[in-house]
Amino acid sequence: MTLTTEPIKKTMMTMIAPASFGMLMTFLFQLVDTYFVGKLGTSQLAAVSFAYPIYILVVGLFMGIGAGISSVVGKALGEENTDKSKSIIMLSQVFFMILTVGIGVAGYYAITPVFSALGASTEMLPLVADYMEVIYLGMLFLVGTLITNASLMAKGVMIKTTIIMAIGGLVNLVLDYVLIFGMGSIPAMELQGAGLATVISWMVTFILMNILLLKEGLFSFSGFKNFAKAKTQLKEVLTIGGPAVAAQILNPIAIAVITRVVSKYGEEAIAAYGIATRVESLGLTGVLALSVIMTPLVAQNYGAKIMERIDQIIVYAGKTTVYWSIALLAILIFFSGNIAAIFTDNATVIANAKYYFIIVGLSFPGFGLALVSTSFFNGVYQPKKSLNLTLIKSLAFTIPLALLGSFWQLEGIWIGIAVANVLGAIYSDRLLKGWMRENNSSLVNANVIMAYMDDMKYVFSKLGWRK
Fold first, then answer.
1. Quick one: residue 206, left, alpha or beta (phi over 0 = left, psi -120 to 50 = alpha)?
2. Rounded to two decimals, what is the model's pTM?
3. Maximum separation of any 2 CA atoms in the chain, in Å
4. With 431 labelled, which of 114, 238, 315, 447 sits at a CA distance of 20 to 30 A?
5. Are 52 and 277 in contact (CB under 8 A)?
6. 424 near 399, Cβ under 8 Å?
7. Domain that holds residue 459
8. CA 428, CA 436: separation in Å to the nearest integer?
9. Could you give the number of structural domains in the chain?
10. In a domain? residue 1
11. What is the pLDDT of residues 193-232, one digit of tens each?
């Protein structure tokens, strides 16, 4: 796919659709686990919920690296430097998978202190360990997949990676049922089975992604021939990826702090938070996919120095984020209770999750706009702005406001998260306008409110509501 010549709207939609489906499959890894684990009981569901911040931390860490790879590879492809892109991809995959092995081993031996710090009780720790021991040891396959996927997206390869993610999702679905509850001569492994099913699905996805990488002509070990050159290329990835990693890590840190605060309200509150955050991720798949494709799309056009297309990307990305978020909120307002009931029959858990969906759902547009802005800054080689945005949103807004709300009641935490999302969007708008002024963007004096009102008038006219 050509990211510098095709119409922006068409290009974005073509990339978002398969990326959304691919991410949907990724989130189904977690949702399927949640569904089946919920059948084991509230304690097991709470144990998996405790594991969620660590899982998001690891994913966030290497999504940040992926942003660096996507930006550097995308820019190299925009400059028609294919050899450099090949070298960076393989160097990154080997280096960061080896790093992940070390992280996994360290995490394996630190389960008790880490999850005790997150608020897990002594009785809960064995359940958490059953799940996380397997996850830690298999994380290298998840990381390899994330890096390979980011590399392929930098070239615009979307549909094939989506099919691979779908295959991984199906593998996880089948193995979850078999390994959690047992079948024939296979014993019921419960939480260990859930973890093992996820790791096997990661392995399958990783192998298939690398076969695709080879077929796309992006598989090469030439980068290992020159140590000095390899060091320089990895440094370039880390220059963009380093701040992106820090930015990605801040979000799970905020989630971990919130998990700790929510745990004070008991297992049912934790279970509700775990369900709500997973459904939230699933519902916002389109926005999350947009944030992922933004970096390579912007990077290629930035590398080719086509500023008019970058302005178009800003406009379409903003509108897509807002409208998707509003649509999700509408669904949650009417069906939040039914959605929560899919995962548990505990009335308290359902009620707590329902309040989260509605309260935090009101701030989904703000959450999405801040997220997409961080990806944009990575694409234009402004990783420090991306880090600054996430730093302010997580440490200055989300954590303090959630802690403040916790002094009232559980719903106070949800309100704190919602307010933080809105404030994060306001701050991201300030940073984005600053960048546009520095780069003589045609959008500097644009009236955003009028643009949305024009869209509404257009919709009303199509519905026959305008005289």
1. alpha
2. 0.71
3. 70
4. 238
5. yes
6. no
7. 8-463
8. 12
9. 1
10. no
11. 988 998 999 999 999 998 998 888 777 666 566 666 667 7
